[in-house]
């Protein structure tokens, strides 16, 4: 009973900016599909977050970047950096991603033991300038771009991909 009370308390503490502990942003009855022809080497490098669904671990973050690299053991390195409204780095977290299928990554961060998150690359444009990443459980989703500014046509295409995969566009936070 105490555990249930703690979960309810934690869920209630989340702000609208950070999303709830158990917020779901997509209709999980809608099938979700990762990018069938995914080229990991082209996905490597720095991505700028241009839109996201609120998640508690990114509360207060703007100007977020995610950098992917190839490790000698075949895993991908992941470095996420959070910045505040002044552009100052406020936190960073490093982890690894394992490719478990076409466009499907299992991401692990050492500071979050025993948890591997499903990050599915749902779409990239032909030149890997823009990407849409989501999760089958619908608790997260991002639009990423190689630069902080995104062209309107690619943002529209990314939004269409989210909607096609059951995401509620009304809850998407754009930067």
Description:
With 175 residues, the chain is of the alpha+beta class. The chain is built from three helices and nine strands, in the order ααββββββββαβ. A hairpin with a 5-residue loop joins β2 and β3. The longest helix has 13 residues. The N terminus is likely disordered.
Jot down its keywords:
alpha+beta, disordered N terminus, 175 residues, globular
Summarize the structure.
This protein is an alpha+beta fold. The protein is 17% helix and 36% strand.
Structural class: alpha+beta
Strand percentage: 35-45%
**N-end to C-end Cα span:** 40 Å
The outline comes out as: globular
Number of strands: 9
Count of helical regions: 3
Q: Ranges with pLDDT <50 over ≥5 residues?
A: 1-16
Write the layout of secondary structure elements.
Blueprint: H1 2-13, H2 40-43, E1 45-52, E2 62-70, E3 76-83, E4 89-101, E5 104-108, E6 117-124, E7 130-134, E8 141-145, H3 152-164, E9 173-174
Antiparallel strand pairs: 1-2, 1-8, 1-9, 2-3, 3-4, 4-5, 5-6, 6-7, 7-8
């Amino acid at each position: 009973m105490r555990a249930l009370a703690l979960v309810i308390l934690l869920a209630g503490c989340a702000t609208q900016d950070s999303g709830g502990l158990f917020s779901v942003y997509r209709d999980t009855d809608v099938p979700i599909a990762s990018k069938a022809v995914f080229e990991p080497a082209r996905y490597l490098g720095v991505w700028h977050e241009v839109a996201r669904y609120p998640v508690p671990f990114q509360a207060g973050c703007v100007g977020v970047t995610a950098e992917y690299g190839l490790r000698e053991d075949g895993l991908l390195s992941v470095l996420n950096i959070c910045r505040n409204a002044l552009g100052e780095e406020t936190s960073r977290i490093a982890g690894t991603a394992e490719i478990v299928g076409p466009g499907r990554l299992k991401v692990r961060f050492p500071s979050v033991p025993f948890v591997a998150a499903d990050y599915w690359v749902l779409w990239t444009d032909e030149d890997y300038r823009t990407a849409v990443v989501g999760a089958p459980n619908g608790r997260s989703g991002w639009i990423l771009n190689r630069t902080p500014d995104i062209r309107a046509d690619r943002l529209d295409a990314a939004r269409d991909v989210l909607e096609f995969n059951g995401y509620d566009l009304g809850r998407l936070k754009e930067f």
